[in-house]
């Protein structure tokens, strides 16, 4: 992968900045102010600086300084058609994200394949590729992912990478950038950040995929503006993540959201742990595909083939997907009782593609809270968005850590 002199997330070098942004007497406040200004541009742009000041409660002078800094960094630009110039600082000229310069790399490692992608600063997928696993040992999978990202960057000259986000199921410790355990892949204590960093020469951030997607929803999707968001991921891995007041709960060693062995009411599948009806055993795509094979619907292990059979009018496939969605709804109900989030986002293949599955999901929830349960905001690109969201969350939390050297 080419090593460019691009600015990077979390660059260690503080800048010799001409900005009037207050120096680091209160770094947390400075970081928070920078974050709310850039988030404001993301959510409302093109937007006048005076409006950002009103929305954020920061002083107009302070907003002007942060915007000047972001312009230097290449993160924002003045919108093409300024309404009116108003002297120094020009607070009425709208600013918008500059989505033409930078991308982040995203890697999502699933059980059968890895998705690599480039995302722009708005969380949109610029390019992506799926790499079917030839081997599942971590060294091979991660080296191939790095090569895949390198190829995407090579094909997109002009896109400069700020960093790489890696999203993966299982137990992921964000602080150390390590996959502690991923039983379905057979991974244990894999130093993902280190390995991908060595291969790409870029800063790498690693998180669990449910947490990655809750951040994607907060920043770019339906979770935007919601006080609390729960994301439930139902693939081969089943896990959850919860964000409140813009913070995703990790818990000690990032173990929050491990719900694979939560019992599903009415479950019948035997789990590896020895119990019957655990969430992951009951609802995983493996189980869906096995049931589809038993019913003579499909022969393979691809859940999209079950969706295709349902779309083609196979009533058994429809029933399988709808029953699964209803069971997911019952699981959501348990989580609603515990966490009471304003919004619940579910990523699951049937619910993404079929209105009857969404209806069944809400029936499974079974009360008025069902209306707060919605499908993923990224139906066509969820795995591509997951990896990139890990890196974009870092950018939007601490935008001034992006180094300006190359600008
Ligand atoms: Zn179990």
UniProtKB/TrEMBL annotation:
Residues 1-32 are annotated as: Disordered. InterPro entries: ATPase_NBD, ROK, WH-like_DNA-bd_sf, WH_DNA-bd_sf. The keyword Kinase applies. One of its GO terms (molecular function) is kinase activity. Keywords: Kinase, Transferase. Pfam families: ROK. Gene3D superfamilies: 3.30.420.40, Winged helix-like DNA-binding domain superfamily/Winged helix DNA-binding domain. This is Sugar kinase. Belongs to the ROK (NagC/XylR) family. It comes from the Bacteria. It comes from Streptomyces albiflavescens.
